[in-house]
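Subject: Sanity check before I submit

Could someone independently write out the structure tokens for this chain? I want to compare against mine line by line before I put it in a report. The sequence has 199 residues.
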Amino acid sequence: MTLSLPTETPSDDGWLVMVRHTAVDPQLKGVCYGASDVELSTGGLAHIELLADELADKAPSIIVHSGLLRSRMLAEAVGRRLGLEAYIEPRIIEFNFGEWELRRWGEIFVAGHDIARLIHEPERFSAPGGETLFAMRDRVLAWYQGLPSGSRILAVSHGGPISTLRGVLADAPPAKWPELVPDYGEHIRFALQDRASLG
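---
Independent answer below. Compare away.
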């Protein structure tokens, strides 16, 4: 189901928790899978049940996910515990690598692609058919800035969108954003009042 945000009374206790999906299939190690729909590992599937209990204890009022299987499964597990619908929010999907998707990073490098340009030229460089880093930033920020102030929002997302939002709020340069990618299953809390600093 696609998200239609409810209107809630503005307050100072609204928050956003973004959690990265659990671990993917180990066969994807070294593969650029970005916005592709890939399977979770056996451990990742088992982790969902434990993590869903922990996240449900936070009592979110809204649950969203990117629409990809690896985020949807966790979001729906939390939703079942709370009797809440888990909504699709496409703006928090992982970075789109275009024609690089599902290719090995080594193969991409050997083919002559300068992968570092993604973070050193974030406003203009993209993989063929993919998006720029700033395009991802802009969609994530548009979503973040539109969240209802009084809500408690759980968003099951991916390393790229979460690190991007962390980086922007910390005023860190794009080259530092990869250092802010959370571990599988790690969750980061954002106070919605922080949006005032974004102008």
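---
OP: Matches mine. For the report I'm noting this point. The beta strands are 15-20, 31-32, 62-65, 86-88, 103-104, 152-157, 187-191.
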